[in-house]
Amino acid sequence: MNNTDSILLPIALGIIMFGIGLNLRFSNFKSVFVAPKAVLFGLFGQLILLPAIGFVIAWMYPMDAAYKLGLVLIAACPGGTASNLVTFMLKGRVELSVALTAFNSLLILISIPLILSGASEFFLEESKWVKVEFGRIFTEVLFTVILPVVTGMAINSRFHAITDKIRKPLRYILPAILLGVFAFVLFGSDGDGFGQLLENWKLLIPTVALNVLTMITGFKLSGMIGIRHRGSYTIAIEMGLQNSALAIFLANSVLQLKEAALIAVLYGSFSFFLTLGIAYFMQRRGEKEFSFLDLVD
To answer: Average pLDDT, stretch 141-156?
Structure first.
């Protein structure tokens, strides 16, 4: 990521979260803490189930060890602004999505080093201890998620009549901003995400499998323990979209494995659209059973 990326992308993401905040009130978060089942299971799904599924897929799929570690890496980096936007677009539990993004951004400071240390020893036969910088993660979450959302909520509380009028246009404006971000990453700047996607299409098999399996697992299990439908597909969205930027940074700067970084680039190139599509089917199914077959009907 060059200097232009590091300035423009956080600003774009902050604007998106500000727009989401304009649709929320502080009272929306009451249910997250009064009845914490959904947020606790969501954290369990993202920090435990997701890396476990990534590990199994990496173990089973025939590819170089560095790619296997990259798959576990992307599974170990949950959350991000994109999941909050997809939840907003599909009228899920946005307050749950934002809470999960905030909480797991702190918990991964512990989980990522442990997961990657074990995975590198298993796949590379050497332990690569990963140090995740607290200041970097905290600053990123504070300025791109928490402060924009809180500011938007404060404006919504004080000028509710105005925010009511712009709520509908925001459902088109915010996705358009994110699509612009994706286009910039894939086709602009110094990246060649689209070219890498075409050149390494075989690696799409394990990465797509990770996306689909984790979403269905999160959706099914959350429903089984009594979490309502909106909460279930919100958790599925959170498990489907990973923090690809963090994974790329760790792969390049800490692990120093370009193959691991490539997995993160590939995952980031399609996961937003695939997650949006799967979550749309989940939302439309209502309280009915959802399975992989629904995606190919």
So the answer is: 83
